[in-house]
Amino acid sequence: MNIKALSSTLSVSEQLLPSDISELAKRGVRTIICNRPDGEGSDQPLFSEIEKAATEHGIQCHYLPVTMGMVRDEEATAFATLLEQEGPIHAFCRSGMRSTTLWALSQANHQPLTDIVATAKLAGYDMSGVAARIAGKSGEMKTLRSYDVLIVGGGAAGISTAASLLSRDKSLSIAIIDPADKHYYQPGWTLVGAGIFTPEQTMRDMASLIPKGAEWIKAAVAAFNPDSNTVTLEGCRLIKYTRLVVAAGIKLNWDGIEGLSETLGRNGVTSNYRYDLAPYTWDLVRNLKGGRALFTQPPMPIKCAGAPQKAMYLSGDHWYRNQCLEKIDIEFYNAGAVLFGVADYVPALMKYVEKYRAALKFNHKLVRIDGDKKTAYFETTTADGNTEIVSREFDMIHVCPPQIAPDFIRSSPLVDQAGWVDVDQTTLRHKRYNNIWSLGDVANSPNAKTAAAARVQAPIVAANIIADIKGKHCVAHYNGYGSCPLTVERGKIVLAEFGYGGKLLPSMPKWLLDGTKPTRAAWFLKERLLPPIYWQGMLKGKEWLVTPTMTDEN
């Protein structure tokens, strides 16, 4: 925890952990202000967890969430009101930038502008953009520079696209915008939840992954200005671009289920969709000797549609191997109507459903959790068409949260009516802005949202941008490929590979690996080969087995 003082009564920092509260208490902090919305990052504890720890230390806690890069005047006013609470006061967000920005705006009529900027700079925060707002010069925003290609998002899709572009043309000026310090191999979290990987195996420093030749702009995007070919960053800074790639990922909407945020990480409530909770999944699984285990899946779209049932299979396998399955009732609650969207893989999956004696509940959407009572509530439709709420007690529950595009994406002019970036599903080029492309989880192409999909999409986007730069009338086409390694037991996987319309798209001949059946070869691929392919191949611009084919449009 890196605490920075802005005054004798106010300090700021990056994201707090519940374990940090005791240190703040020792420093005499009496009030904490959280300026980071829940669900913004995969490694982020919830406000309720911070609040619980603070209450135990007699510290007040206030929730004033601010969207990254979008600090509004009314939020600054609310922050100023909170500064009247009992001090010392500590405010935090992802990096401390939003908290400092709120403070700077709140001090506009109380301190000289030069003092505000100097104090923030001494604490390590650049308030030059905010200074323009304070001084009433919002029309004089500073343009940092212009890039040939600007990439929003430093996840799998964004970094891979940058690497593929530079492998084709090292002379391009490319920048990646992302505020995160860490990068995660999220497909590994299923195995963390089964005690196979450690969390640390799935994490790298972001700085170590930025491709050589690309610049990393460590900031959050506030707004897109496609008509002027600019992006506005936090602090009212402008970045110009010739071509833009949007790879901003997806938001886990924990607050979309009533009561979930307050009980995550305790009361037997867990999720492999968060870095810090996947180990808790494994703790629950190995310690459960009897009772009821629930696994849930929300309405689509979600990141890796197979992940909710992967957790069920690996848990069932552990209980089966430890001869306690007969004492555990497994129930899978799916908001959808089928076990898996591609029918060819269902027979193999059903054999494991039967092996683990799992009860399948379709058209059941999790809407509320009472953690203290260990009860989950599901919305379902009766035979006569009426909606009803059914409750189910549990000893453990693995939850997959509903998912939406990030806030700054949904409020942008780039999206369709559902809030996803609107692209042509084969070229991944924006339907209205010809110099914009999008890929990964944030695009509205109707493919499975998986890292495997991004691995195929990145070279296609790179190839199409290069063709556009050179004025060539040829494009690469994306066929909707996605892959979902369904971990049905420890040591075996059903390797689902498919494209648009559910068409099977196996990457290996059937005699070598039949993806419709559980195989040890697919497990070896998942556990041993895919992580190094991700870190050393995909993120380095190595297009093994995914080099796109260009087709002349004329």
Can you walk through the features of this model?
With 554 residues, the protein is α/β, with parallel strands linked by helices. The protein folds into 3 domains: 4-140, Protein-Tyrosine Phosphatase, Chain A (Alpha-Beta Complex); 145-250 and 405-552, FAD/NAD(P)-binding domain; 254-401, FAD/NAD(P)-binding domain, CATH 3.50.50.60. The protein is 27% helix and 25% strand. The chain is built from 15 helices and 29 strands. Strands 6, 7, 10, 11, 12, 13 and 24 form a 7-stranded mixed β-sheet that branches. Strand 20 (375-381) and strand 21 (387-393) form a beta hairpin. The radius of gyration is 24 Å and the shape is globular. It starts with a strand and ends with a strand. The model is unreliable at 136-141 (pLDDT under 50). Pfam families: BLH_phosphatase, Pyr_redox_2.
Features:
554 residues; alpha/beta; Protein-Tyrosine Phosphatase, Chain A; FAD/NAD(P)-binding domain; 3 domains; seven-stranded mixed beta sheet; five-stranded mixed beta sheet; 15 helices; 27% helix; transferase
Can you tell me the CATH superfamily of the largest domain?
FAD/NAD(P)-binding domain
Shape: globular
Count of discrete structural domains: 3
Do you know the CATH architecture of the largest domain?
3-Layer(bba) Sandwich
- Let me know the average pLDDT: 93
Class by SSE composition: alpha/beta
Strand content is 15-25%
Report the uncertain regions. Answer: 136-141
CATH class of the largest domain: Alpha Beta
